[in-house]
């Protein structure tokens, strides 16, 4: 057993740190060791339980109902609101789309209207469930275009989507106007608050100006909010709330026409560990409203510090003033975002590159946690020195031959040989016996090449990349 645990520790050696306040993507850190301890013990205590049958493990049902009730209070939900605990924001979004589709069975070829800043999970839902995603470009303020949304709605539309906030830019869509469009036509409006749902209500209590987006807005029929983001719960736990039970009915699945037990599910999963439910419940009970208010104060103060650091750097430009705790910035012609990301990584800070989109430039994305506040001055210094280094090295230049190779590739017919050529051009060709490629520590050049590709080609290349990674021996 000791050997196995030592091997686990060794496997984690190259993982990103999750409790330093320096990882500004993928994880959300409260900076409170006691909260982390309670969460771990709760997950371990319920890891073997199964949420498949709520009568077999009534403790899980009680904890789920408690979490929904707590969230309902945050989200201004009316009496009668119902909800489910899911594995994450993507599952919550998938279920919102599935419920909208199956809740309007008279629509033969359903569609939903989404801003082009809506999370990719909506497009995954469209792909899985056969719902057409009608994409409306956002305005210059990066918020959903109300007039464009109205024009895209027709008799096939079953759902209008808004974000609170959008992931890429951190701004809240005009939810009252979008929800009114949906309500006028008798269709659903889902607010994706997976990022902001556990921050914006406390930001309002702290006196911050917060756009309207909750169930207090007439016409909002469902809201998704992640517990494992700014609820600071262990992965993976999210909530999907519906305004009333009738709206959730189509989400529930039952099947009796086989010789086994009658299957009854409230989410996409059947068997599901009670560990994440218990971990989330324990964290929410441990922190309560006062704890979350303080964590939100810290996260917002850290966000303000990041914004100030960006605005003080001549080579950087804030993409949009954040409504919550997400910050995106781009660069001028003296350097490029991808090199800034590499330089930040070299200084112990993990931030996320975002490729160019619809004529808007590439950017750097930060998901700021409460734990970051204690390191705000270190972050500012790291950003300053990273930008200085990026300016000194200059923007990444893509070899014209490589650019031509990228331009010639067809995402529909990308072959293994094509992918091998891209690996070689990127200097990533490695020992075939060890997986066939070697991922460099600095990835600005790779991101610069991807930035030249169309969205479809980016998808095809990254699917090929994931396919190579996810093989034994790689």
Automatic annotation (TrEMBL):
Pfam families: Pyridoxal_deC. The modification N6-(pyridoxal phosphate)lysine is found at residue 229. Transmembrane segments: none annotated. InterPro entries: GrpII_AminoAcid_Decarb, PyrdxlP-dep_de-COase, PyrdxlP-dep_Trfase, PyrdxlP-dep_Trfase_major, PyrdxlP-dep_Trfase_small. Its cofactor is pyridoxal 5'-phosphate. Keywords: Aminotransferase, Lyase, Pyridoxal phosphate, Transferase. It comes from the Bacteria. GO terms for biological process: carboxylic acid metabolic process. GO terms for molecular function: aromatic-L-amino-acid decarboxylase activity; pyridoxal phosphate binding; transaminase activity. Belongs to the group II decarboxylase family. Sphingosine-1-phosphate lyase subfamily. This is Aspartate aminotransferase family protein. It comes from Nocardioides silvaticus.
